[in-house]
Amino acid sequence: MPRSHVIADWDPEDTVAWAAGNDKVARRNLIWSTVAEHVGFSIWAIWSVMVLFMPESVYGFTAGDKFLLAATATLAGGALRIPYSLATAAFGGRNWTVFSALILLIPTVAIMGLLAHPGLPLWPYLLCALLTGFGGGNFAASMTNVNAFYPHRLKGWALAVNAGGGNLGVPLIQLVGLAVLATAGNRQPHWVCAIYLVFLAATGLGAALFMDNLEKHRADLTAMRSIISEIDTWIIALLYIATFGSFIGFSFAFGQVLQLSFVGGGQSAAQASLHAAQIAFLGPLLGSVARIFGGRIADRIGGGRVTLAAFGGMFAASGLLAGVSTLDDHHSGPTAGATMVGYVIGFVALFIMSGIGNGSVYKMIPSVFEAHSHALGLGESARRNWSRAMSGALIGFAGAIGAFGGVGINLALRQSYLTSGSATTAIWIFLVGYVGAAVLTWLRYVRRPLLIPLPARAALASA
Q: Where are the transmembrane segments (predicted)?
């Protein structure tokens, strides 16, 4: 008899049941939920790879057109995160994970068909970019599902594994693209898609065989409505736009900026694509790893301080980029090697600092509502439930809103290249934005730190 994939009574806080086998059930669901999120992130970021296979001489698309493709995919992924965060409760974590993996077969097959027929107009590509946005929604569904399986004392670790594993989908697909470019050349983009068709099918099958639905898992719409009136909801969302938005926006754009710079240095389109791919994966990889360290450091010295330091680093990195790009604009002839080194150092530093900011901003969320809960005059149980519900709702909301920062990154770069032929104007805009985010962090969370009683602070640090 096949086992049932529906769990009628699940209480992760029951330590006896947890030790008797529930920990293994939760781990199994964490693994496959993370795999699904990872592959979803890869498909969401697939255009960061595909643009390297689309020379303008063959497909007719300008740099502005390619940045628009990235912005479209990012916009769709951000918009889908809120409904995806509710979907696992409505349809079941197992059911939705299977669906979310298999639906990504549609844009992956469509990309293969589009790139096999150069000369088509831009709108089919934009439609396909919208469909790849379903992969961006996987983050919210996966985080919500993992959150339901794990006890409060282990949520920090489980959610960090889930989020970090998902983010690593970006550099992995770029490494796959690099392997294809190095072995088959820039005329064989279908190999990238073919590899991910296998990954998607395996993910859907694995989720169907090994995951479970929680019968009593229900979405808390009351908390989602309640956070709208909280000023910290909007401040943290803005900070997450600047951190995660930068990570995902530059993940889409980094390879193309490098490719354009290599072409400006006198390389052929094929050489520029290969050299850009050799470097582009490094930024998202380091940014994904830095996210974990950002959360750990925030546990020790406070999320506000770490976030402020991260914005300081992002300001310095974007200042380096602005200086390098300005000098390049005033330099006639091919892009110099020293200029290329400056671009790479500046962008990689931005990835690392935005990754640290990703972790520290998410660590701030439970601290904010834990501090607020002590002023409500509630009983201990009700106070904890309020803090937990509000924190969970804001995690989903901030994750959705933060992705829109990636839209702004790509639209700003697109307009900058259209008007001036370089990224200089966009980089100066990013620099000003990071200064504003740093000032906001200092005013709200550093100048007057959140006051949390010592026992609660210790519990947050161990989560």
A: 30-55, 67-84, 96-116, 122-144, 156-182, 188-210, 231-254, 274-294, 306-324, 336-356, 393-413, 425-443
pLDDT at 89: 80
Q: What is the rounded average pLDDT of the residues 342-346?
A: 90
pLDDT confidence bin for 2, thresholds 50/70/90: low
Could you tell me the pLDDT band of residue 212, with boundaries at 50, 70 and 90?
very high
**Would the pLDDT of 46 be above 90?**
yes
Q: What is the pLDDT of residues 439-460, one digit of tens each?
A: 999 998 888 765 444 444 444 4
Residue at 3 is within a domain: no
22 occurs within a structural domain: yes
Report if residue 7 sits inside a domain: no
Q: Are residues 99 and 231 in the same domain?
A: no
CATH number where 139 lies: 1.20.1250.20
HEC profile of the chain: CCCCCEECCCCCCCHHHHHHHHHHHHHHHHHHHHHHHHHHHHHHCCHHHHHHHCCHHHHCCCHHHHHHHHHHHHHHHHHHHHHHHHHHHHHCHHHHHHHHHHCCHHHHHHHHHHHCCCCCCHHHHHHHHHHHHHHHHHHHHHHHHHHHHCCHHHHHHHHHHHHHHHHCHHHHHHHHHHHHHHHHCCCCCHHHHHHHHHHHHHHHHHHHHHCCEECCCCCCHHHHHHHHHCHHHHHHHHHHHHHHHHHHHHHHHHHHHHHHHHHHCCCCHHHHHHHHHHHHCHHHHHHHHHHHHHHHHHHHHCHHHHHHHHHHHHHHHHHHHHHHHHHHHCCCCCCCHHHHHHHHHHHHHHHHHHHHHHHHHHHHHHHHHHHHHCCCCCCHHHHHHHHHHHHHHHHHHHHHHHHHHHHHHHHHHHHHHHHHCCCHHHHHHHHHHHHHHHHHHHHHHHCCCCCCCHHHHHHHHHC
Residues 58 and 122 in one domain: yes
Q: How many domains does the chain have?
A: 2
Domain range spanning residue 459?
222-463
pTM reported for the whole predicted model: 0.82
Q: Which of 97-101, 214-218, 391-395 has the highest mean pLDDT?
A: 97-101
Residue, of 262 and 204, whose pLDDT is higher: 204
